[in-house]
Every structure is written in structure tokens, then in C-alpha cells.
Amino acid sequence: MPGICDGRVVIVTGAGRGLGRAHALEFARQGARVVVNDIGTALDGSGGSTGPAAEVVEEIRAMGGEAVANGDDVADWEGGKRLVETAVRKFGRLDVVMNNAGFVRDRMFVNASEDEWDAVIRVHLKGHFCTARHACTHWRERAKTGEKVDARIINTSSGAGLQGSIAQAVYSAAKAGIAALTLVQAAELGRYGITSNAIAPSARTRMTEDAFAEMMKKPDTGFDAMAPENVSPLVVWLGSADSRDVTGRVFEVAGGKISVADGWRTGPEVDRGARWNPAEVGSAVRDLLAQSAPPQRVYGT
Fold first, then answer.
1. Is residue 286 situated within a structural domain?
2. Which tens digit of pLDDT belongs to each residue from 100-138?
């Protein structure tokens, strides 16, 4: 039976372990040819080895699929370019970028350092930018030749980015940036046949199994809701041709649950028709808040 991604060429970043590995394997099961990107760092981003990517490639080949490993740093401008070039050189084209790579350095805001801020923002936010930016150059050039492009960007945000998470101020800021980036990509790139969507997954990975040990604990029996493999069906569908009418959306996904995140919207308003007196603002704001739905709680509160 053919898969829903037959013939498509997919890059999955951070694909050596966890969610990225699960995505790469499922894309391969669904007929895609996969560039497995991973630099093999530790949870905090230190160190590096291409071993994990090569292992996933071997798993894909063992199931009869096609894959190639790539060890470029996705947050490096030239690295992102080489990653896209790997797909085009090996498989002749590129159809999907699944941005997954990242790491955490959890810290309460008052203890966060400049180095930690720079490192986390770099790998998540710049890492999402570099590869997709070079992929879009490839897709735009194809579109300008008259080819009908049917391309996908799939970004990885987080519940922390949508509503915040205690001790994850930097990570939350990066993931919130990714959600906003997704909206702009969708608005700008549709003319070229490119969609952009994001997921906010909840699953057992190196990032979550210690921080949320009880939630992520594997059950003794029954459905393992926090297994990373549960997130991949949505990701693979978003990478398929069938999803071409869906763009600019953020999906929360965990276990067997999929929901559409309802982001910032213009809510109740009041217009005085003239400049406000500062002393009158307080009562107006409180009236507006009374008409508004309360925000979701920050994770950990």
C-alpha cells in the first residue's frame, strides 16, 4: 500500500533521537526519502557526534527506505545551506523541511545568563530560520521556472511557547518566536506553493523526561500516550500533498489528541475617541478584563 508521502523528499532536523527520530522513521514508512540531520549534542547542546543520525539512516534502509545522514549545524547560515544542498544533490529535489532540532537549559529567569540566552535562542529560533530560508530559495527558483511547487515547512513550537513555563523563560521565548515566525511564513510564502505550520508536541524526550518525570512516565500496560511516535502521524500528514490547504496553524498534539491552538486575538475593546486621562485607564482596563476569558495558566503554576 503506498504511503501518503510517496516520492517526497524531506529534511528532518535533530532527527537522531526522540521526536526527530520518530518523525524521520514515519516519513520513511510513508514513502518519503529522508535527510536525517543531527549533530549529536548532549541535552544542553554541548559535544557532538554524527553517530545518532547514521543510526537512524541504517534503520530506514533496513526497512527498505532511502535516507542520508547530515551533520550540519542548522543554526549556522552556511550549515543550513549545505543541508538543503544535501537533499537536492542526493535526491534531486526537496519538498519538506521539518524543523525539530533544539535543546534546553532550564533556569529561573533571575538566574538565566547571557550565554544561555544566546545559545537557546540560536539553536531554536535561528535554527528554524536558516534551513527554511535556504529551502525557500530552492522552492522560489523552481516556482519561477513555472513548476507547480507543493512544499511544506513544519516548525516545532511548544506549550511553553504558547503559554509560558516556569524555569523555562528563554526556551519559552524562543518557542513563542517560532509560532510567530510560522504565521509570517504562511502569509508570505503561499504565492510560491509553500505552506507553513507548527506543532506544539507533548512527548517523552530527553528534554521532558526529567523535567516532567511523573507526566512522562511510561505506563506498565496499555497505551503509552507520551511515546514520541504518537506525534509523528500529524507531522507526516502536514508534510504530505493532502495538507496543501492548511497553513498558518499551530497544532497541539499529545498521545491520541490533536487540537488547534487559538492564539492571540483582538478581544474586547473600548474607544474613548480622544486621548485617555491616565487616572481613567485603570477602570477601563478592568472592565475589559472582566469581559475577557482568563489566560491559560503558565506551566508549573
1. no
2. 999 888 999 999 999 999 999 999 999 999 999 999 999
The bridge status of strand 257-260 relative to strand 250-254 is antiparallel
Domain containing 147: what range?
9-260
158 annotated active-site: yes
Dihedral pair phi/psi, residue 34, rounded to 5°: -120, 130
Q: Provide the CATH number for the domain around residue 44.
A: 3.40.50.720
Let me know if residue 1 belongs to a domain.
no
Q: Say how many CA atoms lie within 13 Å of 32 toward its Cβ.
A: 33
**Is residue 263 very low, low, confident or very high in pLDDT (cuts 50, 70, 90)?**
confident
Q: How many domains does the chain have?
A: 1
Determine, yes or no, domain membership for 279: no
With contact defined as beta carbons under 8 Å apart, do 256 and 230 qualify? yes
232 catalytic residue (yes or no):
no
The predicted-structure confidence for 175-222, as pLDDT tens digits, reads as follows 999 999 999 999 999 999 999 999 999 987 655 555 555 555 676 777
Catalytic residue among 175, 196, 240, 299: 175
Q: Is 175 a catalytic residue?
A: yes
Options 157, 158, 196, 232, the catalytic residue: 158
Residue 125 DSSP SS3: helix
Residue among 208, 258, 251 nearest 18 (CA): 208
Question: Is residue 278 one of the residues assigned to a domain?
Answer: no
Q: Which residue in 171, 172, 196, 240 is the catalytic one?
A: 171
